[in-house]
Design brief:
Distance between the termini: 59 Å
Number of helices: 14
CATH architecture of the largest domain: 3-Layer(aba) Sandwich
Strand content: 15-25%
Shape: rod-shaped
CATH topology of the largest domain: Rossmann fold
Order of helices and strands: HHEHHHHEEHEEHHEHHEHEHEEEHE
Strand order of the largest sheet: 6-12-11-7-10-8-9
Structural class: alpha/beta
Number of strands: 12
Helix content: 25-40%
Radius of gyration: 42 Å
CATH class of the largest domain: Alpha Beta
Number of domains: 3
Length: 470
């Protein structure tokens, strides 16, 4: 049972991920059902009644033998067959306009009975006039046939009791709604089947645990990202990005996990020598080599969503009053960062709240830049080709993380990126996930922060038992 529940949950997740595909197929089913109802409008029905005069001999036979099992004697049952016979229908075709094939007439006409002396002739038509004309034509043809010497069952006195003058049937709009709903249901079934077929063959990793297990590196944070397509969109993100509280905490914790000092978020201001302006304590924001703490966010060229992780991390740090530099250096795939590079080449507007805490730098291969003495964090954005990754010639960083969108890369692609980073002596220390699946219950093996050691509090000795009384 647990395995079945797991398969059902996974199937529902696959369908939800492909909800756009399912929605398109459902829409096509709705449109197809409605189009069918328009092309094949509902048939209307109309009924003509014919009264029969049974011969005296037949009446005596009926009184002796009784009625048939369904309450109708053999005479009336025979007349029902005659009314739908070939000679009657062929004669009726002469009075039906527009003309229709004999097989269609046979299919559209049904002969029944109301009593032992009355038979009903019901005909279908595309409209009320056609249904009424067909029913009356068949009724008149039957009366003419059984009243003539051509009748195979002898002459029978019959007359038209009630002509077909009222046609009934479903309204076109109701028929359209019904067929549209049926088409939508069929489309939903087809869409679910296609989504399951596509989803089960999809090797891209989506769950945080699957992403972490693909390269054996924990997920440090998973946050929704923006998807700018132009330089103006990147500028707006850099100037206005503000994560929700839960995502702010994840980004803050991720930087601490990577090795950034905790006091970097304590909002102190420093001079060029690293001295706190709020006291005499000297608190360093620099690593052991005398450089500011730096982190590279490495992503794949096929994953456009993960490109925003680096800028959002830098903007978040700047919003916490951490002097930050966002660096867009040489890239293996320059087209992937072209619009971001254009946005970083311009300075922040005067109205930007990040102005003074965030610096944007874009440089080409062979170029260089100077890090200001008060810089506390440097975020480097790097993009490699997803098919044949190769590390770009960019600055060395204190830590390197892989940025990936949920469901945007396979485990093999992530492993290739990690391998080329390791070959360039860049150790992958964590993963940042963009746009995580809302239904993903996993954590991505988030590591636990080191807790400061605490000394045990002394316990107060209140007394010593020296004797046990019995």
């Amino acid at each position: 049972m647990s395995q079945q529940a797991l398969d059902l949950r996974r199937s529902m997740q696959i369908v939800r991920r492909h909800k756009l595909l399912v929605g398109i197929v459902v829409a096509l089913g709705l449109a197809g059902g409605a189009a069918y109802a328009v092309h094949k409008p509902p048939m209307l029905t109309s009924t003509a009644l014919v009264a029969l005069q049974q011969p005296v001999s037949q009446q005596q036979a009926n009184s002796t033998a009784g009625a048939t099992a369904n309450g109708i004697d053999s005479f009336t049952a025979t007349q029902q067959i005659v009314a739908g016979s070939y000679p009657v229908l062929v004669d009726a075709l002469r009075n039906i306009r527009p003309s229709i094939p004999l097989d269609d007439l046979r299919h559209n006409v049904q002969v029944g009975n109301l009593s032992a002396d009355i038979i009903s002739i019901t005909a279908k038509g595309k409209n009320a006039a056609a249904a009424e004309a067909t029913a009356n034509a068949v009724a008149n043809s039957y009366i003419s046939y059984v009243s003539s010497s051509r009748s195979a069952v002898g002459r029978v006195q019959a007359q038209l009791l009630q002509s077909a003058n009222v046609a009934t049937g479903p309204a076109p709009i109701e028929e359209m709604i019904i067929f549209a709903l049926l088409g939508g249901l069929v489309g939903a079934l087809i869409g679910v089947i296609v989504a399951l077929a596509v989803g089960r063959n999809d090797r891209r990793v989506r769950a945080r645990d699957d992403i972490a297990n693909s390269i054996g590196i924990p997920v440090l944070a998973s946050v929704p990202v923006a998807h700018p397509s132009a330089a103006a969109g990147w500028t707006k993100l850099i100037e206005n990005y503000k994560p929700a509280a839960v995502h702010s905490w994840q980004l803050r914790t991720a930087l601490q996990q990577l090795g950034m000092p905790r006091h970097g978020f304590d909002r102190p201001a420093y001079d060029g020598n690293g001295n706190s302006l709020f006291g005499n304590d000297r608190v360093s924001r620099w690593d052991d080599d005398g450089d500011p703490f730096s982190v590279m966010v490495l992503s794949l060229s096929s994953d456009s969503g993960a490109l925003a992780l680096g800028p959002q991390l830098a903007v978040f740090a700047a919003s916490q009053d951490v002097p930050t530099v966002l660096v867009i250096g040489p890239q293996q795939d320059a087209t992937a960062t072209a619009t971001l590079r254009t946005a970083c080449a311009a300075s922040l507007s005067e109205a930007s709240t990040r102005r003074g805490m965030l610096r944007l730098i874009a440089y080409d291969e062979g170029g260089s830049f100077d890090v200001q003495p008060d810089t506390a964090l440097v975020v480097v954005v790097a993009v490699v080709d997803s098919r044949a990754p190769k590390m770009p010639d960019t600055m060395r960083t204190s830590a390197t993380v892989i940025g990936v969108s949920a469901g945007a890369a396979t485990a093999e692609q992530l492993a290739r990126a990690a391998v080329v980073a390791g070959a360039d002596r860049r150790e992958i220390t964590g993963i940042l996930v963009a746009d995580p699946d809302p239904a993903d219950p996993t954590t991505g093996r988030i590591p636990h922060l080191d807790r400061p050691a605490r000394r045990g509090l002394p316990s107060r000795l209140r007394g010593v038992v020296t004797e046990i009384k019995r």
